[in-house]
Amino acid sequence: MSSAFEGVFIVGAGQTKYAKRAATSVQKLLYDAGSAALADAGLPWSTVDGLAVTCFKLPPDNVATVAEHFGLEARFLFQGLYGGASGIIGMAHAARAIRDGACDVVICAAADAFDVASHNETLDHFNGSVRDYMSPQGFGGANGMFALHTRLYMERYGATREDFGRFCIALRENALRNPNALFKEGLTMDAYLNARQIADPLRLYDCVMPCVGGDAIVLASERVARKLTGPKLRILAAAEIHNYPANELYELPGGWVGLSERLYAQAGVGPDAFAFAQVYDDYPVMAFIQLEGLGICPKGTAHRFVREHDITVGGDFPVNTGGGQLSAGQAGASGGMIGVVEGVAQLMGRAEGRQVEGGCGVISGYGMVAYGRGVSSSVAILERAE
Amino acid sequence: MLKPQPRVTEISRPFWDACNDERLMMQKCMAPKCGKMVFYPRVCCPHCHGAALEWVEVPRKGKIVSHTTVHRPHHDGFTDEVPYVFAAIEIEGANIYAQVPGAPTDGSSLIGRSVEAAFVTHGPDRKLPAFHLVKE
After folding, report:
1. Is the pTM of this model over 0.95?
2. Complex prediction ipTM
């Protein structure tokens, strides 16, 4: 297959330990995740000449001061401003920079140190429209915002609480094979349906657990990558779309339907080629909308898809093979990288205990919740290089 | 505990001033081929991108697009009020978020129900719109 990013390879991925609480600075998390990814690639920090960082708790620092902190002479910097869509967007921007000869080795990292209180505090003034027209009305944070989408999805398409439960239970099964996932016990339908109410129809297990952690991958130019002995991946295509469709809050929340046609034309493959999907699972309803927008199943049928398909690691179409944010944890902006790191580990054959077969997969991101919905959507198709 | 307060800016001041007067105002695009109602307050029409927005008083009646019963608020200022209904409300094609005091909190569907605006005291010198269910 042709790649939109000829001469660019993903050569490593790494993750810090995920923790419910830890007194760790985000700089340390970014460093540890980057170090793990470099070790995976077999590259030293001295080769790094580019950095893409997404981290809600980084201000007043920024990606340039992180480069200074780490002592990097950087020829490319990117700071993700698109929440959970940023991980993939940063990777795509970095790949373009390498392809265009600006730099050779880029670390794409995300990290945060969140708990429920600091997550809510961040959301309270996430942007102007949330701060002024949602938060004062007691919107319930992201939970309340996505409760509205969940209710509409259920009414419009006949999805039930059990359908979202099937998705969450399957992800929990996947998480039990991931030693770094925060949830260590299986989830029953009874426990899912009767969990504590959060924002009707959402209950506890529809909501991610804010946590502490970091994720990173390493991109390298062909010049660097050809000296490495480990597996390498190509980015067949990557795309971002924002505010799509404009002014339609409740028709198609999320932009994947607006980017998938161009994406698949660019990649030269379609959904049939995917061994897995790593979707942005801040809420089950958004995972459903990604499966539909990416053409993995038709619009309005994802709830039937999870009835008819086994999305666990051993199943016919594995989704979020590491447990996703719903069962591994959401370390703030790292939620936009966790799927990338998991997808890279799978395609490199390094997903020990949860390895799926196949050399091509899709990863999607979603973020920057604003007036009633997330504004930014992203997606990448990765393939193992032979 | 003080609830989160909106930041009143030169863009949004007419909306907030009107709320304090218990009137509901939104921006309307004056471009002849557009004419759409706009909310939240902006510097240009997000439909046609023109700058000809004028503040107009809108009917107090709208319809619920979707809603939730909040059991776990995002801010301690709302803790004493749970459970309450928070909703997206459509008024003349524009979307506004508000609580619906008095609506059933048991999760039964309110989608499509008609609501009428009232105004509630939210903080010092600050009233917010709230909506009540009305008969069709």
Report:
1. yes
2. 0.97
